[in-house]
Specification:
heterodimer; A: about 500 residues; mainly alpha; MetI-like fold; 2 domains; two-stranded antiparallel sheet; 21 helices; about 70% helix; flat; B: about 300 residues; about 0% strand; disordered C terminus
Chain lengths: ~500, ~300
């Protein structure tokens, strides 16, 4: 993965400097093209494609002009009307007026804040892309000028077209995936960021009501610690705390469990290791929405495990040592905050360990044997070998995956939602005011805020904060685990 | 994998000669075998419960008996497969899920391979910048931007549509190129250069040289990009909200069966449905285990 090493190997400070150097070069080239270009190049700044016409590339020139025309058309009929209202996000509310002719109320459509926001974001993005194309067009015109001055052959349209499957195959290959990423990742993220600065919630729902910009008010609301003023601030720090605790424990229990299980199964005296492994793998193959929903009722308040525990007297015992409240006749596996958190981590071990076991089995088989051999000759016992040779190796190989898993667990929607939705009811009134629960992760909270309570502004703020947290962890991980010189340790 | 296991065995036999502690050996063996048996039991109990409840005559959640007390029956499967009603539309769900997963899988795999090839085998201006940018973008978990995704799809009129679902699952898949690119990086450059000297164009190198050599990673990509939409719950729940049960996927349909009023009549049917959707994945998973592990660990070990 040579090129990836290049991507990560640099420290981030260096990468940062290079980034700005790149941008500086980009504009220097552009300035050079304009100042040193001939008339055709200069004309390209206004009439895109002029540079192509000057070098007899008529088809490309015509297409470029068509692009410019389309852009101007888009600006007049799409971008301008939307961007004009972008500052206020609309001012006319939908109203009804009595029509004396039909004797009925007719609806007069007002502004739709959300559509204005959405279309403006798309328009701004389109303008940004157009500016890049415009710069490219001028640079390209200057290149063509230089080529023709040097007497280099200028490719015809047919040759240009052919190069899309050869020299410029990358453009062909990347076109569709890039379009998909823009549609599904870039535009939604931009909209999400924009919504975080508005008051878009249930009280301000288009098309019947307007919403508008509120600056940093939502961020202040969620980051204020005094629980009196804001239920959101209180809920946020509680949910954040549990999210991090959960991500830590779920990642490490599954990681260690996977290694231990893999070690046990590969132990030489174990009969039929393949059958055992398959048994565990079957549990991965059943989709989570089946197993987790099933387990939820398995451990329900009136579920079969509770019947069993009452039967053998475990419920009474737990009552006597104070782990179960006295007024209950069952163990509140998934209904009491403390128990639920414990059980969620336990059930997640059940879900995650077989998968980690599969990975660990593969990794353990590749441990350099020479190291273990020499440790044995030096008289190390099995335990020492495990801690000083096996674990460092596994950590080396799985380190990056471990961080990815940690980030994935911060956003582990399925386990929490499927185990606690509908069954877990919070008794903490402040949390309930913010529509949160003790067992919520930031993502499940976000999902509930949008899906059940239409509180888009707070959900967007949470989304941005989660992104920042995930990005920080990922960046630390990438710079720590993939910094230069580390790759050779085991080669 | 088999080969590697036997290698492992070999060296452990050597170790046996080095020190002969036969007695403690036997004790350890017994303990380890017992541990595995206990773990296997814990892991398999819920699956067995799923299995036996699917054959139970009692429709609700039996809280007193693990095995069905009222006798065994095949009725649950009959209802799931042949007798659709207002709640159970299993065949329609299965078909929806399959079609969505199939098309998402095709598009995702194509995107991943295209992006991986470009970044791994081609050199062009802006390659590094694009790679860095996509790594950062990929850190943003899809679940978080789902409200915005939902709105975009709504403006395009693609909510409650299977085309919309396919777009949601596959459009951004190009960002997940890292593992596949890692694999392609291990293919010697000399092969490509030789082909270029022979006059092969990039498109020929892509289809005739790199793709055939990337078979293991293609299998991995296909499996993982098929399973993701197949087992997805959250996006389906968000996007398919019309309440028309024939439009749903299996995940949403089964989840709905466990609603407050329904679960006492549909729990065993839920189990039958859950069992049926698990069978194809189990078979696929057991057959493709080798490739799957190679994909996951391959990506990890090469960082």
């Amino acid at each position: 993965m040579a090129s990836n090493k290049e991507v990560h190997a640099k420290t981030f400070g260096k990468a940062f400097v290079n980034f700005f150097k790149g941008i500086a070069n980009y504009f220097t080239d552009f300035g050079k093209a304009i100042s040193k270009g001939d008339l055709a190049v200069k004309l390209s700044t206004v009439l895109m494609g002029a540079g192509y016409f000057a070098r007899k590339k008529f088809v490309v020139g015509f297409l470029t002009m068509l692009l410019e025309a389309a852009f101007i058309f888009m600006c007049i009929f799409y971008a301008a009307p939307n961007l004009a209202k972008f500052g206020t996000l609309g001012d006319t509310v939908r109203s009804t007026q009595f029509d004396p002719l039909t004797m009925q109320n007719t609806v007069i459509e007002g502004d739709n804040s959300f559509l204005i926001l959405l279309n403006s974001v798309i328009a701004l993005f389109a303008i940004f892309v157009f500016i890049l194309l415009w710069i490219h067009n001028i640079k390209r015109a200057y290149e063509l000028q230089q080529d023709s001055e040097k007497g280099v052959h200028i490719a015809t349209f047919a040759e240009d077209f052919k190069s899309l499957v050869n020299g410029r195959f990358n453009i062909t290959l990347l076109a569709l995936p890039t379009l998909g990423v823009i549609l599904m990742n870039v535009i939604p993220i931009l909209i999400l960021i924009a919504i975080a600065f508005t008051n878009y919630d249930q009280m301000h729902m288009p098309p019947s009501a307007l919403f508008t910009w509120v600056g940093l008010a939502n961020f202040k609301n969620i980051l204020s610690l005094s629980s009196g003023s804001s239920a959101f601030g209180y809920a946020f720090f509680k949910v954040l705390g549990w999210t991090l605790v959960w991500a830590f424990f779920s990642t490490f229990t599954c990681f260690l469990g996977g290694i231990v299980l893999a070690k046990l199964i590969t132990y030489r005296k174990v009969k039929f290791p393949k059958i055992w492994r398959t048994l565990f793998v079957v549990t991965i193959a059943v989709p989570q929405f089946v197993t987790l929903l099933l387990v939820r009722y398995f451990f329900g308040d009136t579920g079969i495990v509770n019947s069993f525990c009452t039967g053998i007297g475990l419920t009474e015992f737990l009552k006597s040592i104070g782990l179960v409240a006295n007024h209950l006749s069952y163990i509140p596996f998934l209904t009491n905050p403390g128990w639920a958190k414990f059980m969620i981590i336990m059930i997640n071990i059940w879900v995650g360990v077989p998968y980690q076991m599969l990975i660990a089995t593969g990794v353990l088989l590749n441990i350099p044997e020479s190291q273990i051999e020499s440790a044995k000759l030096d008289g190390a016992n099995a335990w020492q070998i495990f801690w000083h040779i096996t674990m460092p190796y596994v950590l080396f190989v799985e380190g990056p995956t471990l961080i990815t898993d940690f980030v994935r667990n911060i956003n582990n929607f399925n386990v929490i939602y499927l185990l606690t939705q509908d069954t877990f009811v919070t008794t903490n009134q402040t949390l309930a005011n913010a529509n949160a629960k003790e067992v919520d992760l930031l993502v499940t909270w976000l999902f509930r805020l949008t899906n059940d309570y239409y509180n888009y502004k707070m959900a967007s703020v949470i989304g941005i904060i989660v992104f920042v947290i995930c990005a920080v962890f990922s960046l630390i991980a990438f710079s720590k685990f993939l910094s230069g010189g580390r790759e050779e340790s085991y080669q | 994998m088999e080969n590697a296991i036997s290698k492992h065995d070999n060296y452990e036999q050597k170790e046996l000669k080095l020190r002969s502690k036969k007695k403690s050996e036997t004790a350890t063996t017994i303990i380890i075998n017992a541990l595995i048996a206990i773990f296997a039991l814990i892991w398999i109990i819920p699956i067995v419960w799923l299995l036996v409840t699917a054959f139970s005559k009692y429709r609700g959640i039996d809280t007193a008996h693990f095995f069905p007390a009222q006798g065994w029956t095949l009725d649950n499967f009959k209802i799931v497969l042949f007798e659709p009603d207002s709640v159970v539309q299993y065949i329609a769900w299965f078909k929806n899920t399959f079609i969505i997963a199939l098309f998402s899988c095709i598009i995702s795999t194509a995107f991943v391979l295209m992006v991986s090839y470009t970044f791994s085998c081609m050199r062009f201006k802006g390659r590094h910048a694009m790679m860095k940018f996509s790594i950062i973008l990929n850190m943003f978990p899809g679940v978080l931007s789902m409200i915005a995704v939902y709105f975009v799809m709504k403006q395009l009129g693609l909510t409650n549509s299977h085309v919309g679902m396919v777009i949601v699952y596959s459009a951004g898949s190009g960002l997940g190129y890292l593992i596949c690119k890692g694999f392609m990086d291990t293919i010697p450059t000399s092969i490509r250069e030789a082909a270029r000297l022979d006059g092969a164009s990039e498109v020929e190198i892509f289809f005739k040289i790199i793709l055939p050599l990337s078979k293991p990673i293609i299998v991995y990509t296909v499996i993982s990009s098929f399973l993701a939409p197949w087992a997805d719950f959250v996006f389906a729940k968000l996007m398919l909200n019309s309440g028309i049960s024939t439009d749903w996927t299996v995940a949403i349909g089964l989840y709905n069966m466990l609603g407050k009023d329904l679960k006492s009549h549909y729990f065993s049917i839920f189990c039958a449905g859950g069992l049926l959707i698990s069978i194809p994945i189990s078979v696929l998973f057991i057959l493709m285990q080798k490739y799957y592990v190679a994909g996951v660990t391959g990506g990890a070990s090469k960082g």
